[in-house]
Amino acid sequence: MSLKEHWAVFSSDLSMGSDFIQNLLRGRPCESLKELSGQQGVLFSNYTLERFILEESRHDDYTLSIHEHRSIRTFSSGEQRKALLNHLLSSQPDFLILDNAFDMLDLESRQKLGKKLEEISGEITILQVVKRKDSLLPFLKRAIALENECVLFAGTLEEYLTNFGAKDIFT
User: Could you tell me the strand order of the sheet in which 7-10 lies?
Assistant: First the structure.
């Protein structure tokens, strides 16, 4: 098993529907993430969850809740995110993009999700879009900073935090 590199993605204006994210998911990443070229990725975000909820509502597609015999809309936020993560991981992606992964979760759910992400970090590359310093995953070692979808920095997380500090993103 090769050692996976995990990335913190710093941006104050990155949309999950942006060209940067969509190109990454299509296997056409920017030069700084070229090791992900041609690989299959999945997006773990409210954007993705909302798409599943809409499909369930419009087309009675219960993909995320098929084994529960109830609507995903009746699940707690933690249950919804767990169902989404399990579904995404079932496709055996090469990388996982996390956006606001810990939003709206209680402490116990945050801890469970963090533990699950750490467990899978040996198998797949994780890219975390970072909006809050306290949600930064401990196993991230690389960083990329974007502004208007242009790469401003790519290097180690330590370099980023030393040179740019947390002031840019976390204020």
Answer: 41-44, 95-99, 125-130, 7-10, 142-147, 150-156
